[in-house]
Amino acid sequence: MKPRISMITLGVADLPRAVRFYEEGLGLPRMESPPEVAFFTLDGTWLGLYGRAALADDACVSADGQGFEAFTLAHNVHSEAEVDAVIQQAIKAGATLVKPAGKVFWGGYSGYFKDPDGHLWEVAHNPFFWPGPAEGSGGLRKR
């Protein structure tokens, strides 16, 4: 198996609300999709939104998940100021602040928010980790 994650699909309670949050609130570019699902193009992967019950049914598991799901999604950025800006953008779009951004024990700067369905996102600046190509660069930057 080649090491990659092609798509992350989030089970959501209210698809139109989730689409508004990610498309209008966070500005993710939405792809053409059938009405029961929404796909967004990210830099090197895709994000999918699908009804929580339907996604659980597709995987043959219970949709009754509660509490911490034992994973977070991370959005790594180029600066501390960008961490603050992304978190403020998410809150303005309807996210809930979980942990205000600040210096962290591993030498970086990060904070957490929950999207309207409770999915936990970390926004981080790691001065020791390449976050990906600069906005608008159109390609991968060699290290």
Verbal overview:
It is a single chain. With 143 residues, this protein is α/β, with parallel strands linked by helices. It is 23% helix and 29% strand. The chain has 3 helices and 7 strands. The protein has helices at 15-25, 52-59, 80-93; strands at 7-12, 37-41, 46-51, 73-76, 96-103, 109-114, 120-125. It has a 4-stranded mixed sheet with strand order 4-7-6-5, with helices on one face. Strands 1-3-2 form a 3-stranded mixed sheet. A hairpin with a 4-residue loop joins strand 2 (37-41) and strand 3. It is globular. The protein starts with 6 loop residues before the first strand and ends in an 18-residue tail after the last strand.
Show the helix and strand layout.
Elements (H helix, E strand, L loop, with lengths): L6 E6 L2 H11 L11 E5 L4 E6 H8 L13 E4 L3 H14 L2 E8 L5 E6 L5 E6 L18
Parallel strand pairs: 1-3, 4-7
Antiparallel strand pairs: 2-3, 5-6, 6-7
Helix pairs in contact: 1-3
Helix content: 10-25%
Radius of gyration: 16 Å
Catalogue the unreliable spans.
137-143
Largest beta-sheet details: 4 strands, mixed
What global shape is seen? globular
Distance linking N and C termini: 24 Å
Strand order of the largest sheet: 4-7-6-5
Strand content: 25-35%
Summarize the helix and strand pattern as letters.
Answer: EHEEHEHEEE
**Structural class, judged by helices and strands?**
alpha/beta
DSSP, total strands: 7
Could you report the average pLDDT, rounded to the nearest whole number?
A: 87
Number of helices: 3
